[in-house]
Amino acid sequence: MNLQENINRIRQMMGLIFEDTKDKCLCPDGTYTKECCCECEDGTVGKKCCKYCKCLDGSSSLECCEELPKMKTLPVNIPYFSDNLPDKLEPLPPQEYKVDLTGVPQQLVDAMQDYGIVLPLDVAHFLAQCRHESDNFNATTEYASGRAYEGREDLGNTSPGDGVKYKGRGYIMLTGKSNYKKFNKWLNEKGENVDVLKTPELVASKYAGEVSAWFWTVVGPLNGKDFTNKALKGTSLDVVDKIGTWVNGGDPPNGYLERRKYFYEYIDKFKTKNDVLVKN
User: With helix as H, strand as E and coil as C, how does 70-88 read?
Assistant: First the structure.
């Protein structure tokens, strides 16, 4: 696979906008174009499909394409996109790691302390996933409208409007009415007098850090996904990718190259050399 083919594949899997797509809109099918930026009330998609279109940022306009917030752009020569990137990297021997917390939101740092995410490897894996899922900590609310979740009984969305109301929120995004109910019960049992079912926006603001740590330390193990135990297995790409699959599905998971990149950025014992991740 040549470099351009690799870049095209990564574009599709990572959902990032590059230089030649930055002025276009992210469509529900993952492509970029100026012709599908509106989601209509009847569930169809098109720039001029109805009198009032609902844009992916939640506003309403017939010309919403230009109003959508620009996602970050990345240069195409990032070393992690190289054909020389190894498919596997053997774990390094156990040792003391340090984690660079520069740019990490304070509420995530606080949540890690509260939920016991304190071991360096656990912290690095956790933050890598949070950072990717939240578009580099820029979004704690899913960009899409949430209409794709309408009628999803597996998510507890049984009433009209549940998909939109209970779309993804948090750094690792809580999605679906049934999951909001579980998180609300957790908060109430802790003594918090709150109802995130009535005010789901709180999950994107006050509880964005906590819901992510709760997912990592409570929900994961209950569903057979012990994130901390897996994180402490080490630094191999296999471990990073497996955790990404647990968080977001897919094999490899969506945006797996960025998830890897972020993980190794947090472990300050590493650097890139000739596109291969090595110990300093």
Answer: CCCECCCCCHHHCCCCCCC
How far apart (Å, rounded) are the C-alpha atoms in residues 64 and 41? 15
How far is the C-alpha of 243 from the C-alpha of 119, rounded, in Å? 16
With 0-12 / 13-18 / 19 or more C-beta atoms within 10 angstroms meaning exposed / middle / buried, residue 124 is buried
3-class SS at 273?
A: strand
Cα–Cα distance measured from residue 279 to residue 253, given in angstroms and rounded to the nearest whole number: 25
SS3 38: strand
Whole-angstrom distance, CA of residue 157 vs CA of residue 176 = 6
**DSSP letter string, 138-180:** T-SB-SS-SGGGTT-GGGT--STTHHHHT--BTTTTB-SHHHH
pLDDT tens string 152-194: 999 999 999 999 999 999 999 999 999 999 999 999 999 999 9
The residues spanned by each domain of the chain are 3-67, 79-140+209-279, 147-204
> Residues 6 or more apart from 32 whose CB is under 8 A from it?
17, 21, 24, 25, 26
52 contacts 45 by C-beta, under 8 angstroms:
no
Q: Centre a 10 Å sphere on the Cβ of residue 185 and count the other Cβ atoms it contains.
A: 10
The interaxial angle of helices 237-248 and 256-266, nearest 10 deg, is: 120
Q: Which residues pair with 39 in a beta bridge?
A: 45, 54
How is residue 168 written in tokens? 């993804």
Q: What 8-state DSSP symbol labels residue 6?
A: H
Whole-angstrom distance, CA of residue 248 vs CA of residue 112: 20
DSSP label of 58:
S
- How much is the average pLDDT of 206-227? 96
Q: What is the pTM of this model?
A: 0.65
Q: Omega before 252 cis (within 30°)? A: yes
